[in-house]
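Aim 2, interim progress: modelling of the XIL-bound target.
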Amino acid sequence: MRTPPRRTRAGAYALAATLLLGLAGAPGADAATDRRHRATTLDDLAQKSGRYFGSAVDNPELADTPYADLLGTEFGSTTPGNTMKWEATEPQRGVFNYAGGDEIVNYAQSKGLSVRGHTLLWHNQLPGWLTSGTWTADELRSILKNHITNVVTHYKGKVFAWDVANEIMNEDGTYRDSIFYKTLGPGYVADALRWARAADPKVKLYLNDYNVEATGAKSDAYYTLIKRLKADGVPIDGFGMQAHLALQYGFPNQMQQNIQRFADLGLDVALTELDIRMILPTDPAKLAQQADMYGRVTDACLAVRRCVGITVWGYSDRHSWIPPVFPGEGAALPWDENLQHKPAYDTIAASLAAAARKKKG
Ligand code: XIL
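Predicted structure of the complex, ligand included:
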């Protein structure tokens, strides 16, 4: 499925209810009934104001059945955490492997979730053949075009958005000195967007980065770049704010205004990798502060009409990229390691519910 919000589950539930009438007393009927009456999900609430609520997932997590089941019921969208990245999709030059990405797409389709594609071009998780090679500009341009064309074509109609370029700016608003920038200069970003558009005319094309939730040099650089791309007729549909936040750094300055200014360029904005880490151990005060921040981040998105959805980077502390990457930090997600709601779940739900009421009223 292409565009969130995904199809409503109401139809599926009506069918399930009909089947249940015939199945009363059959094994599994109670579980199905429970599911039919389960509490409203975050995605149900988000859909009421025309948005999606998603979670990333990495392939090994699909084998964690309770985790995968909750992913499939609670969320409207998913993003593969790793297996659409270059090292996974083109491990040898010109040899493409879509097994991991396809597994997630198939799972998502079976549960009625839409998929965000992540990511076509990034300085991390590149295959060794690419980073260890020495390339002329013409060679690298053709490698990049071939990669984007293949991957986007393969997932055409299966993902509704692509993070075409990920993390291309430094904190001070200059271009990151990646292999692409070094070899091709800044024009590679427009080229990448055009190649992606050529391969799939309908998919939403995003630039995506972290530390761009607040106003400041980095988000200013994206604002200037995107304005220029638009003026030049380069296809770009959205700006992804990863939103890897941390209690100790506080709420991003002027987040709502910052989202709004990108929306005002005629773009969709999405929070694409939301998590809010803390220095461990957790305590009730930190969890309360985290809940407050999750609620305010959700509010900031919902206050802007073109903030189209929120994706958490995994939904439970059971599977999170934070502890290995930020030693001593963690507990960044709205569900705990036992898949129980943390206080953050309630503030997110309350924020989504308030936006739904406002939309209705
Ligand atoms: C992370 C994955 O979650 C990890 O499993 C992997 O080891 C490293 O990458 N910004 C991004 C994501 O855009 O692709 C990163 O995902 C997290 C930071």
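Residues 291 and 346 are 8 Å apart (CA to CA). Confidence is low (pLDDT under 50) at residues 7-37.
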